[in-house]
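Cont'd.
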Amino acid sequence: MAEGSLDLDRLKAKLGVEWAPRSYPVNSEMVRRFARAVGDPNPRWQEGNIAPPTFVMAIGFEQFVDELMSLVPFGTVLMGGTELECYHPIKTGDVITVVFKISSLRERRGKMGRMAFMTFDSSYQNQGKEVVARCRQMVIGY
Amino acid sequence: MKQLYYQDVSLGSEVSSLTKQPTTQQLVMWAGAVGDYQPIHYDKDFAQSRGLAGVIVHGQLVGAFLGQLMTDWIGEKGALRKLSCSYKGMNYPGEVIAFKGKVTRKYVEGGQHFIECRLWAENPEGEKTASGTAVVILPSRG
């Protein structure tokens, strides 16, 4: 992509607007695969029915990146930071509904051209309508 | 795994440290587990074309390592309530990353026993590539 060609208008139009909710059933294989990827041998997640607190980051993330890229075709997306609040453990068998929203957007010109500094807020609700977690991610796209 | 209690923790005491040496294979496992298929995490030429020194470790994986640092320390009866981290520098596969933490505050609120910690990740040069905070709830003796 040519430098500086990113058009952030479609993202700006979404500022503060919640994206369509999506639901994800959590199964033991997803949790085990996550724990193995972290190299976390804790039997609670490797063999039990509880997901580690950071598993939240994996829920819906692939579709989040796809939707972000469909709004602005960034060449690269880097994570600048994560703020996670966990209220209830996520268990296998839960169905987690995720809602994303872009809460801030700032532009800057860097050595790789136009860069977008974005903050995304997401909330995670289980099948009992309990909010189990909230997450804020700082994302840099260029 | 030994259970940590609120009374075991004093201000300034250290969180049991954790070290990781993520391989490129681990990055692929993480990519699959969370659905983050950006080539900066597995394609060196692409990563360099995007202004990076080489393939980099996913920021969120570093966040998940910090999560493991805390869940290892607090044991089964502890709960990670908040985890914030900012990914300030790059981590590269093959490097040993040390994860450390220090207790900055302890307090009781609403009958629950809270501990706050400052956390960070250190690369082999001793640079803090990520830093953040955590809030955990611990069981109380008696």
